[in-house]
């Protein structure tokens, strides 16, 4: 199957820079993970197994 585009490979310098980008701390991602961990435990106490709260 032919590719819909033809792109030149990225330069080697770009590939050498990528590990630095991926290694940088992501505060938003870490905060979201912590919030999810706390809220998930809290909601598991009273939500049904389906994860959907009944409508009142």
Structure described in brief:
The protein contains two helices and no strands. It is mainly alpha-helical. The protein has a domain at 12-44.
Note down, in words, how this protein is organized.
Helix content is 54%, strand content 0%. It starts with 11 loop residues before the first helix and ends in a 12-residue tail after the last helix. The mean pLDDT is 76. The protein has helices spanning 12-23, 27-44. It has a domain at 12-44. The relative contact order is 0.06. The radius of gyration is 21 Å and the shape is elongated. It is an all-alpha fold.
SSE blueprint and pairings:
Blueprint: H1 12-23, H2 27-44
Mean pLDDT reading:
76
Low-pLDDT stretches? none
Give the count of helical stretches. Answer: 2
- Main sheet summary: none
Q: Percent helix among the residues?
A: 40-55%
Backbone shape = elongated
Number of strands: 0
Structural class: mainly alpha
Q: Beta-sheet strand percentage?
A: under 5%
Our Rg estimate from Cα atoms comes to 21 Å
């Amino acid at each position: 199957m032919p590719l819909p585009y033809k792109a030149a490979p990225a330069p080697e310098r770009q590939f050498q820079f990528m590990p630095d980008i991926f290694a940088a701390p992501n505060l938003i991602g870490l905060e979201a993970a912590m919030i999810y961990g706390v809220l998930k435990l809290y909601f598991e106490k009273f939500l049904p197994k389906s994860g959907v709260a009944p409508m009142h």
